[in-house]
Input
Amino acid sequence: MSENNDKPVFSIEKLYVKDLSLEVPGAPGVFGQKGAPQIEITMNNTAQALENGFYEVLVKATVTAKIEDVTLFLVEASQGGVFQIRNLSDDPLEMTLGIAAPNIIFPYLRETISDAVSKAGFPPVLLQPMNFEAVYRARKEEQAAPESSEATKH
Output
């Protein structure tokens, strides 16, 4: 049997926490705060080519909990993955880096955030599922919008 070297390849090489920061600026006083905290979550994902068909994908989340103007905690985590991706044309490669890889990484990020918040002495924060396909499509539309508005000016 001959091996087909043109077949698409997608494999997980490594999953890891690239960066983790936890702050509880008012401890121990904040543990006596009454009321439900306001939780603010921001997320983003990036990808970069490494070498020889390997790519690093990062999914980053920042979670801040406050009661009125008192910060209970702030946690930032970047969960990373190295993926081997070969024999994909540009569009499928972009979609793999923007959708498939972040979907694989996200559950690990959720666990990292939850564990950090628990270890800080607070009830765990569970990140809600993220629709990376919608984020990817929105980014593509944003990138296309300036080009189309430039084209209409000329």
The longest strand covers residues 70-86. The mean pLDDT is 91.
